[in-house]
Amino acid sequence: MPDVTKTAATAVEDAVAPPSAAEPAAQKQKTEKARSLWGDAWADLRRNPYFLVSSVLIFILLVITAFPGWFTSASPTTGDLVNHYVGKPELGKIGSEGWLGYDIQGRSVYARLIYGTRASVIVGICVTLIVTVIGGIMGMIAGYFGGLMDSILSRITDIFFGIPFLLGAMVVLQSFTERTIWVVVFALAFLGWTQIARVMRGAVITVKQADYVHAAKALGAGTTRILFRHILPNAMAPVIVVATIALGGYISAEATLSYLGLGLSSPIVSWGVDVSAGVQSIRTSQHILLYPSIMLSITVLAFIMLGEAVRNALDPKLR
């Protein structure tokens, strides 16, 4: 006969005994909150060297844009033809007025490089925000409602998509006598929203078939709540990727238009204006053309690298 008292005591000890080492780990794993797509993307981005390098470059550009006076005390518009006409760079004097030389009007190339950052970054960011809002709204409406609404908005998008981007911007800018930064932003945004609209439409069509959207409809959620609480957060990933990469393209487009004399012009300081002026003296004073071109290339490359890093983080197929 088994010892009933001993068996009962053993059962009581097992009931009150502390859990094994494997049990806390299992409980911790159960209680740990599952990460979302955005949480996984952020974890991947922090380990991506392209994201880190591009983020540092973009942060520096934003600081230069906001506080150009921190980096130089020289004026970007005041020239001295007597003493500084196409002056050669003084590379040993880092950060000085003549560090990168002078242009054909005796103005500091370094000062114009610093102050030219503001125009390029403002144009790129503002155009990106505007086209994301306009294209996102049109694509979301077309993808969610479908039918006649989708047909009308899609045909409007196709019409704008068929207009060459730079050529159309030239025609729009040619109609303005004074081409300020905001005029250039308007011209680029007027023709640049089509790609965002197509991407958003496709993403919304995919997301609206999900079970949680049908469940929200069954529970009586309104159209506005479904669009902005359930569909938009889950359809924004491809839009963010396209917008980030396109931002560098808008900066390049502004510089191209300014180079052709159809974008920004003096007294506004712009890298495109400086590149255009540097072409006149490319055989004798290459530094006038070289440094704005390098700065423009670095800026565009930084935003493209950021867009690629975001794309790799948000696309599950690339993990």
Class inferred from helices and paired strands: mainly alpha
Morphology: elongated
Radius of gyration: 28 Å
User: N- to C-terminal separation?
Assistant: 62 Å
Describe it for me?
It contains 14 helices and no strands. The chain has helices at 4-16, 22-31, 37-46, 49-66, 81-84, 109-145, 147-161, 165-174, 181-192, 194-207, 211-218, 223-259, 271-279, 287-314. Helix 6 (109-145) crosses helix 10 (194-207), helix 6 runs antiparallel to helix 12 and helix 13 packs across helix 14. The protein is elongated, with a radius of gyration of 28 Å. The protein is 71% helix and 0% strand. With 319 residues, it is mainly α.
